[in-house]
TrEMBL record:
Keywords from the named record: NADP, Oxidoreductase
Keyword set includes Metal-binding: no
InterPro entries the record matches: ADH-like_C (IPR013149), ADH-like_N (IPR013154), ER (IPR020843), GroES-like_sf (IPR011032), NAD(P)-bd_dom_sf (IPR036291)
Pfam families xrefs: ADH_N, ADH_zinc_N
Residues in Enoyl reductase (ER) domain copies: 11-327
Organism: Streptomyces lancefieldiae
Domain of life: Bacteria
Annotated protein name in UniProt: Zinc-dependent alcohol dehydrogenase family protein
Length: 332
């Protein structure tokens, strides 16, 4: 038998259960992975709560990220071998594949070998965060040397990835965080400057740090009332990339600033990249290159055993982490 994470109704972390299930057999174009580590993201929390773009179908699996070893290959799968260490690129819906469990199926296009120097825990911490940051900063906004990049929710795994990708491109990364409690951790993680949004005047501080020019790229998963300050802090012809909606409060928007600054405000989600074969390949190559050169390194905040999956979700929702939350699977 095989244990998988499932839930039978939307709700808090307590709705998650480890349930026995038969060992699945890979169909055409599928890969069976014996997992060693699972990456946890805000997306799983929202899916469990019924607040995600795709509604769960009960009983529902869950999970976008896993790392482990190939156990079996379905017909037509090429480029992978049994026993190979792999990780999963989120490029499917959780209603089709939920990869949080001991042995899980994933579509072959989503399965990649990870660099040998990475542990399974690190490999489970790579693709969601780095491809999200790559998509917003590189693919959409065209980050370049000398740019100033404002990064909201900077202590999240995606925020930390964005700091590293900004630096890889030769840009300056200004981390935004609600209070000063995580300031030193963000500086240690590579942020060039840190602004505590609940304690400082964000537009004034950005003007000070950019000699009055503003930030050319703003990378924000929050939205809500704080977006107005980010628009004010934007430079002429800036790109404002919104990749989440953590604050569902109606957003005030100064249309005059958008108009006269010639701003581009763009909603973005990871799947724009990962469901397009060409863009996914380019993103994977970019991240793999950065990992191999040591320019990109996943940051793990805390690990939980699989038996404590509900507690891992509670920890995620408390919002105190700096980096990725990883769930380990027996056998590591």
């Amino acid at each position: 038998m095989n244990r998988v994470v499932r839930f039978h109704q939307t709700g808090g972390p307590e709705v998650l259960h480890l349930e026995e299930a038969p060992l699945p057999e890979p169909g055409p174009g599928e890969v069976l992975i014996r997992t060693r580590a699972l990456g946890l993201n805000r997306a799983e929390s929202m899916f469990r709560l019924g607040q995600y773009g795709t509604d769960p179908v009960f009983p529902s699996g869950i999970g976008y990220e896993a790392a482990g070893v190939v156990e079996a290959l379905g017909d037509g799968v090429r480029g992978l071998s049994v026993g190979e260490a792999v990780s999963v690129v989120p490029s499917f819906t959780m209603t089709d594949y939920g990869v949080h469990g001991e042995a899980v199926l994933a579509p072959a296009h989503a399965v990649v070998a990870h660099p040998e120097r990475l542990s399974f825990e690190e490999a489970a911490s790579v693709w969601m965060q780095f491809i999200t940051a790559y998509g917003g900063l590189v693919d959409l906004a065209g980050v370049r040397p000398g740019d100033t990049v404002l990064i909201s929710a900077a202590s999240s795994s995606v925020g930390l990835a964005a700091i590293q990708i900004a630096h890889k491109a030769g840009a300056r990364a200004i981390a935004l965080t609600r209070t000063g409690a995580k300031r030193q951790q963000l500086l240690d993680a590579g942020a060039d400057e840190v602004i505590a949004t609940a304690e400082e005047d964000v537009p004034a501080r950005v003007r000070e740090l950019t000699d009055g020019q503003g930030a050319r790229i703003i990378f924000d998963p929050v939205g809500g009332t704080a977006l107005a300050d980010l628009v004010t802090a934007a430079a002429h012809e800036a790109h404002v990339v919104l990749y989440g909606v953590l604050d569902r409060t109606p957003t005030p928007l100064n249309v005059g600033e958008v108009l006269f600054k010639h701003l581009t405000i763009r909603g973005f989600e990871l799947f724009e990249i990962t469901t397009d074969d060409r863009r996914r390949a380019e993103a994977v190559a970019f991240v793999a290159d950065g990992l191999a050169k040591g320019e990109l390194t996943p940051t793990i905040d805390k690990t939980f055993p699989l038996e404590d999956i509900a507690e891992a979700h509670r920890y995620l929702e408390a919002g105190g982490q700096v980096g990725k939350i990883v769930v380990t699977v027996p056998g590591t």
